[in-house]
Write a structure and sequence with these properties.
single chain, about 100 residues, 3 helices, mainly alpha
Length: about 100
């Protein structure tokens, strides 16, 4: 098993996953550490759906790379795990909102 993907779909999957992680990390740094932004601001309503769509695309391309092209690299598996965790977080988070 290799670390990096060899197929085009696998590489796209990993790049999209990295972009998703950068968006989430930067958002949390701006809100929690630097206190420049706030979770109640409008930017959060735009950033979250875009980030989730990016991660769902990464999940789809990762699954396609694994099934269609037989790409069994560690980073593609991590992308799929991250995508599944994102879906679970979105579903479970909506159950416990206290608004």
């Amino acid at each position: 098993m290799k670390l990096k993907p060899e197929t085009k779909l696998g590489k796209w999957s990993v790049r999209l996953n990295i972009f998703f992680l950068i968006i989430v990390t930067a958002s949390l740094v701006f809100v929690l550490i630097l206190k420049i932004l706030n979770f109640d601001d409008r930017w959060w309503d735009i950033t979250v759906p875009i980030a989730v769509l990016i991660e769902m695309t990464a999940l789809y391309t990762g699954i396609r790379a694994m099934r269609k092209n037989k790409d069994k690299s560690v980073l593609v598996y991590l992308t799929i795990i991250t995508g599944i965790c994102t879906i679970l977080f979105a579903l479970l988070h909506s159950l416990f909102i206290n608004d």
